[in-house]
Amino acid sequence: MIRALCAEAAPLRLPMQALLEFATLLVFIAAYYWRGLYTATAALMVAIAVLLLIDLARERRVPAMHALSAALVFVFGSATLLLHNRLYIQWKPTVFYWLVSATFLASFWVGERPLVERLLGRALGPELHVPDKVWRRLNGLWVGFSAVLGGLNLWVAYSASERAWVNFKVIGVTLATTLFVALQMLWLMRQASPAAPESSAPEHRGIATKG
Question: Is residue 204 a part of any domain in this protein?
Answer without folding.
Answer: no
